């Protein structure tokens, strides 16, 4: 049962998706839920099926007092590294919120101060607190939709299915076709034990 982590009416939950991908953006969402919001299906997005996430997305968007979603793209990820890009995405998502932000709860163990708003990092917070779980669902669904669009441009990598994660299929496609403008060049695209055929 997810807890309501409640400090004030303006508690912000934030989370990101796509940190471990080889291609595509890292995407973050931030939101403020009503004080008495409950949904029995809501959980860490990684624990939910794609259909359940898609069903929850409009419920969360309609229920949230406000929400924001932000992508940080591969070129920026390569410049500032994935940790900084993840935090930047969360900051940009929080930028979109309205109201007097009183407190931020963040999934994971790393964050940088956002203006002067107090914050707390919570390891596996997306499986513990509703506002973080809801943010994780939005981040994941928005990123998945974006990767499905990229799939139409480069179908050989099957991003519609693997979303840019380092699956065997994705890496085999990289071996055959090389990388695209959507790949993160600072990431190790192929394991060291694989050798490219010349």
Automatic annotation (TrEMBL):
Its EC number is 3.1.26.4. Keywords: Cytoplasm, Endonuclease, Hydrolase, Manganese, Metal-binding, Nuclease. The keyword Hydrolase applies. Residues 9-198 form the RNase H type-2 domain. A divalent metal cation binds at residues 15-16, 107. It catalyses: Endonucleolytic cleavage to 5'-phosphomonoester. Manganese or magnesium. Binds 1 divalent metal ion per monomer in the absence of substrate. May bind a second metal ion after substrate binding. Its cofactor is Mg(2+); Mn(2+). PROSITE patterns: RNASE_H_2. Pfam families: RNase_HII. It is found in: Cytoplasm. InterPro entries: RNase_HII, RNase_HII/HIII, RNase_HII/HIII_dom, RNaseH-like_sf, RNaseH_sf. PANTHER family: RIBONUCLEASE H2 SUBUNIT A, RIBONUCLEASE HII. Endonuclease that specifically degrades the RNA of RNA-DNA hybrids. This is Ribonuclease HII. It comes from Maribacter arenosus.
């Amino acid at each position: 049962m997810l807890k309501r982590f409640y400090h004030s009416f303006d508690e912000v939950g934030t989370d990101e998706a796509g940190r471990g991908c080889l291609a595509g953006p890292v995407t973050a969402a931030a939101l403020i839920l009503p004080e008495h919001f409950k949904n029995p299906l809501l959980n860490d997005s990684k624990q939910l099926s794609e259909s359940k996430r898609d069903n929850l997305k409009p419920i969360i968007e309609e229920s949230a007092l406000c929400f924001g979603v932000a992508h940080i793209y591969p070129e920026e990820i390569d410049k500032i590294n994935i940790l900084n890009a993840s935090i930047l995405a969360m900051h940009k998502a929080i930028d979109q919120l309205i109201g007097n932000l009183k407190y931020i709860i963040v999934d994971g163990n790393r964050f940088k101060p956002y203006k002067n708003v107090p914050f707390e990092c919570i390891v596996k917070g997306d499986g513990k607190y509703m506002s973080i779980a809801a943010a994780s669902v939005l981040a994941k669904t928005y990123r998945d939709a974006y990767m499905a669009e990229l799939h139409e441009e480069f179908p050989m990598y099957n991003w519609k299915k693997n979303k840019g994660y380092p699956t065997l299929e994705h890496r085999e496609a990289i071996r055959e076709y090389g990388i695209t403008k959507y790949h993160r060049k600072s990431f190790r695209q192929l394991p060291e034990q694989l050798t490219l055929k010349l």
